[in-house]
Specification:
The chain is built from 10 helices and 9 strands. It has helices at about 20-25, 45-60, 75-85, 90, 140-160, 190-195, 215-230, 245-260, 295-305, 310-335; strands spanning about 60-70, 105-115, 120-125, 175-180, 205, 260, 270, 275-280, 285-290. Keywords: Cell cycle, Cell division, Cytoplasm, Cytoskeleton, GTP-binding, Nucleotide-binding.
Length: about 325
């Protein structure tokens, strides 16, 4: 018979077979499917690359490089060879006598270089006087101070309430350290400099004037330097910690095997087999700077300009500058 009382309903969901329960465990809104979405026609998303290229060509970009090493190791010549123009401090100030300063003095010179419509504001910072004195104690202090001053300048611009749309970037993106071609071990000065500087800037060590060593001496010297860097836990660029994916790691591993690059600089052209090449003329032939069989200058150029220039800038901004910014803001937030 029918009852006037309302029928009691259970609050639990009705029982379902086990197979259906497993299917319901996955929310229906997150349906598994292909990662990419298939388009039915051309949209034009790839045009964003052209937009970025046009914008970069209009505004240009900045690249700041520092060269550190004793006098007479060919720093100015190497920079001129890298950019195939007279961009070094020495070549831009003709007629001045080259005197060794009593202390480390930092001198920067800026040029605007243009190639195929792309403008680059290049700043080269030289460090005359580094390692030239009898007592080289704390000779790296002016260099560390200069690098931190550029971070501070950028930070001050960044924290302004009304700041510029494009903050001038004077931060040092790469420091090329010239190791003397002794053929022995790294000196305590070299180790201490790279240990301190690798924490605040991208350091790329090179063996200067590598044509003074035989190929066997060069290979042995390179192995000793790699051993010294590993023993003292000095992380030079490209750092293993910042490899983003297996492809980057494979490329950077090949570069790390070659570091420090044995380089030869030359800013004079010579005729070789009907071609004009940059090189150094000796009694037994011409050392071609851009010939990988003669020296490793092409590897250095590719690293600094052709393959890792943007990565140098990214690591400077995201790692070295970021650690400086965090430290400074923590200091300013400390109670007096």
């Amino acid at each position: 018979g029918s009852s006037l009382e309302p029928e009691e309903r259970s609050m639990e969901p009705p029982a379902v077979p086990e197979e259906e329960e497993e299917e319901e465990a996955v929310p229906r809104t997150v349906a598994p499917g292909p990662v990419g979405c298939q388009l039915f026609g051309y949209v034009g998303i790839e045009a964003v690359l052209d937009q970025m290229k046009i914008k970069t060509m209009k505004t240009g970009f900045e690249f700041n490089i520092m060269v550190v090493g004793q006098s007479g190791l060919g720093k100015s010549t190497m920079v001129n060879t890298l950019f195939k123009s007279k961009v070094s401090r020495k070549s831009s100030q003709p007629g001045q006598e080259e005197r060794i300063p009593k202390t480390v003095q930092l001198q920067s010179i800026t040029h605007v270089i243009e190639e195929k419509g792309v403008k680059m504001k290049l700043t080269v910072t030289d460090t005359p006087g580094f390692g030239d004195q009898i007592n080289n104690e704390n000779c790296w202090d002016p260099i560390i101070k200069y690098i931190n001053e550029q971070y501070e300048r950028y930070l001050r611009e960044e924290i302004l309430i009304t700041r510029k749309r494009k903050i001038p970037d004077t931060r040092v993106h790469g420091c090329v350290y010239f190791v003397p071609p002794t053929g022995h071990w790294l000196r305590p000065l070299d180790l201490e400099f790279m240990r301190r500087l690798s924490k605040i800037v991208n350091v790329v060590p090179v063996i200067a004037k590598a044509d003074t060593l035989t190929l066997e001496e060069r290979a042995e010297f390179k192995q000793r330097i790699q051993g010294d860097l590993k023993t003292h836990a000095i992380s030079v660029y490209p750092q293993e910690d910042f490899d983003q994916d297996p492809e980057d790691r494979a490329l950077n591993d090949r570069i790390r095997e070659k570091i420090p690059f044995a380089v030869v600089g030359a800013d004079q052209e010579h005729q070789v087999n009907g071609k004009r090449v940059l090189g150094r003329k000796t009694k037994w032939g011409i050392i071609e700077v851009e010939n990988p069989a003669h020296c490793e200058f092409p590897l250095l150029r590719d690293l600094l300009i052709r393959s890792h220039l943007q990565d140098l800038k990214d690591i400077t901004h995201n790692v070295h500058y970021e650690s400086y910014r965090v430290r400074r803001l923590n200091e300013s937030n400390q109670p007096g």
